[in-house]
């Protein structure tokens, strides 16, 4: 059954936070700690298609212990942000790209695709209900987390015939506690995040579960993030646990690992290709070996390294550590190219620069 066009009912939360409680949270939201007063829910079955769209008070979901997602991890998600502009209007950055990626992830995980009008309608309806939760000032935003999971109560291994889609929202400040300071990266030599033919290009919870042990190992070595190599040759740089990577060369060109099929197709990564070109940089997508990173930083041919993603925006990378050594790029501050690209991107997101590529959608 094909889904009907997007529609949603709205039930206001009678126990919504008071303006004082909300303001206290918005003053210093951190990342992923607080949630707004509402959430969006819808369900899919083969008979109904996507149906029952509703904005309801934020609260726990009741899950039967035999719900399929708890056993086989048939789950996908997205991440995008709503930004307040100087005139008080609220905008999303490239939401159609998130809608398309959720559809690709759904295909890989044998979940039903959510039509684009349902994706845009659901995030817009939630931002509308929780308009007062979109923080302004500094680099704050409202992080939106659409997600979809197998909600059939059944222990057989097959695609679920009952699927739940939800959107929750969380006011966000800096992803890393240190703000825009270089992070250090641990090279995982024992573990891979994804393999050929696997789910690396899908945004599914299982990929993140697989990254947690190496992430823990990285933290034990004093690093904030982990870099993963390809699973076949253990040579080619893929990405971090939750971000894509860029390398700035001494000739001004910038290089990012090519989409190998096992890397998440980051929307920030894609936007940076355009923004960096607009700033006059040559941008190259190609394979980058871990040896090139180590040697390039040591011999000065790589001058800056940065990571990018919706949550962390653009974050400079300082030290790369591995079992037996380390190299550090930069002097403990963000490099000039990194800072310039970062400013150009966030100026578009916050409406301070012209939206030349039509990336912004007004929602409120
Ligand atoms: N790579 C991984 C594994 C991620 O989780 C993310 C975050 O979403 C990214 C890359 C960056 O993607 P985007 O820029 O679309 O947020
Ligand atoms: C994002 O940047 O949106 C992510 O999903 C990264 C992380 C929070 C999982």
From TrEMBL:
Q: What is its EC number?
A: 2.6.1.42
Q: In which pathway does it act?
A: Amino-acid biosynthesis; L-valine biosynthesis; L-valine from pyruvate: step 4/4; Amino-acid biosynthesis; L-isoleucine biosynthesis; L-isoleucine from 2-oxobutanoate: step 4/4; Amino-acid biosynthesis; L-leucine biosynthesis; L-leucine from 3-methyl-2-oxobutanoate: step 4/4
> Which SUPFAM superfamilies does the record match to this protein?
D-aminoacid aminotransferase-like PLP-dependent enzymes (SSF56752)
Q: What class of enzyme is it?
A: transferase
Required co-factor(s) are: pyridoxal 5'-phosphate
Cited Gene3D superfamilies: 3.30.470.10, D-amino Acid Aminotransferase, subunit A, domain 2
**Positions with biased composition (Polar residues):** 1-12
- Report the superkingdom from the record: Bacteria
Alphabetized, the UniProt keywords read: Amino-acid biosynthesis, Aminotransferase, Branched-chain amino acid biosynthesis, Pyridoxal phosphate, Transferase
- The record's region (Disordered) falls at 1-20
Report which reactions are catalysed by this protein. Answer: L-valine + 2-oxoglutarate = 3-methyl-2-oxobutanoate + L-glutamate; L-leucine + 2-oxoglutarate = 4-methyl-2-oxopentanoate + L-glutamate; L-isoleucine + 2-oxoglutarate = (S)-3-methyl-2-oxopentanoate + L-glutamate
Under Gene Ontology molecular function, one entry of this record is:
branched-chain-amino-acid transaminase activity
Membrane-crossing residues? none
Q: Pfam family example for this protein?
A: Aminotran_4
Note the NCBIfam families from the entry. ilvE_II (TIGR01123), PRK13357.1 (NF009897)
Q: Which family does it belong to?
A: Belongs to the class-IV pyridoxal-phosphate-dependent aminotransferase family.
Can you say what this protein is called? Branched-chain-amino-acid aminotransferase
């Amino acid at each position: 059954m094909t889904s009907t066009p997007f529609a949603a009912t709205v039930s206001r939360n009678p126990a919504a936070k008071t303006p004082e409680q909300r303001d206290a949270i918005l003053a210093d939201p951190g990342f992923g700690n607080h949630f707004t007063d509402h959430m969006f829910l819808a369900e899919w079955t083969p008979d109904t298609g996507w149906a029952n769209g509703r904005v309801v008070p934020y609260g726990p979901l009741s899950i039967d212990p035999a719900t399929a997602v708890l056993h086989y991890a048939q789950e996908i998600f997205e991440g995008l942000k709503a930004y307040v502009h100087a005139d008080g209007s609220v905008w999303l950055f490239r939401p159609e790209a998130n809608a398309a990626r959720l559809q690709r992830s759904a295909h890989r995980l044998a979940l039903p695709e959510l039509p684009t009008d349902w994706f845009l309608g659901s995030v817009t309806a939630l931002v509308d209900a929780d308009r007062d939760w979109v923080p302004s000032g500094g680099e704050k935003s409202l992080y939106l987390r659409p997600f979809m999971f197998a909600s059939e109560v059944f222990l057989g291994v097959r695609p679920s015939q009952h699927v739940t889609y939800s959107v929750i929202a969380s006011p966000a400040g800096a992803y890393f506690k240190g703000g825009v300071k270089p992070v250090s990266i641990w090279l995982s030599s024992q573990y891979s995040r994804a393999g050929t033919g696997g789910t690396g290009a899908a945004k599914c919870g299982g990929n993140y579960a697989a990254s947690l042990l190496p992430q823990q190992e990285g933290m034990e070595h004093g690093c904030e993030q982990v870099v993963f190599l390809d699973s076949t040759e253990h040579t080619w740089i893929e990405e971090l646990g939750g971000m894509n990577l860029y390398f700035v060369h001494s000739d001004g060109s910038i290089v990012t690992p090519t989409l190998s099929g096992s890397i998440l197709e980051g929307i920030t990564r894609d936007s940076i290709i355009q923004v960096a070109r607009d700033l006059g940089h040559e941008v190259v997508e190609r394979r980058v070996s871990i040896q090139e990173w180590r040697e390039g930083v040591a011999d000065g041919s790589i001058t800056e390294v940065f990571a990018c993603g919706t949550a962390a925006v653009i974050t400079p990378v300082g030290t790369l550590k591995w079992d037996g050594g380390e190299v550090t790029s930069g002097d403990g501050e963000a490099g000039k190219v990194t800072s310039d690209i970062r400013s150009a991107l966030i100026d578009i997101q916050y409406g301070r620069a012209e939206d030349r590529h039509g990336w912004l959608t007004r929602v409120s």
